Amino acid sequence: MKIRLFLLYILICGFLGVTLGQQLEFVEVADTIMLKQKLEASSEFAKSISSKFKQEKHLWMLKETIISSGEFLFKKPNSIKWQYNSPILYTISIHDNKFTIDNSGNVKTYDIQSNPLFKEINNIIATAIRGDFINNPNFDSRFLSNDVQFLAILIPVNKNVKSMLNIIEIYLNKSTLQVDKVIFREAQDDYTVISFEDKRINENIPNSDFILSNP
User: Nearest 5°: phi and psi at 73?
Assistant: First the structure.
């Protein structure tokens, strides 16, 4: 349980919560078929993503918000790298079915396929960032919109995912259909959000950028 909570805290990260007033700005999307077609096309177009990110973790037992930031890389089919630069140096890489953590030069690698927890975490992150939540059997979904964003609300139906998360909220820029932020809501009103800034699409990212090794 401690390992699960630790990984969930490090990986599945959050942002400021949406106030009631903000939630009322969103309305149900009338033509979900058209939206799904656009999201699928956008997901197909984005082969790689480079971005800065800001993470805010909200725990019901703490008054202060835990804030961190860094650089994010994504490359299809499912290579992902979170490089935390503040408040500590910490890197997480998912590549070639390996889950690697670099904690200030101490590198440890795990086989995703042999660890169900790592596999579920990888699937959740890829689902949110890659945009393949369309018709994903692991989630029930709703789609809303306001003047500037679409909001996909994913409710897990897979028991392994449900044990970690209650809801995933994915906010997409209405013009670009790229992910602006993701909120992962856990039990007891805990939630984490990732917001993305300075996003660059389809830059060349070599596979070596996802490989971590001891110095």
Answer: -130, 140
DSSP symbol at 132? T
DSSP state letters, 100-127: EEEETTEEEEEETTT-HHHHHHHHHHHH
Using pLDDT thresholds of 50, 70 and 90, give the confidence band for residue 198.
Answer: very high
Handedness of CA 18, 20, 24, 30 (dihedral sign): positive
Helices (H), 131-210: 159-162
Spatial distance between the Cα atoms of 181 and 195, rounded to a whole number of angstroms:
4
Nearest Cα to Cα of residue 194 among 82, 43, 34, 37: 82
First to last CA, the chain: 31
Query: What's the pLDDT tens digit per position in 85-126?
Result: 999 999 999 999 899 999 988 999 988 877 777 777 777 777
Distance of alpha carbon 153 from alpha carbon 26, whole angstroms: 12
Contact 213, 107 (CB under 8 A): yes
Least confident range of 1-10, 110-119, 123-132: 1-10
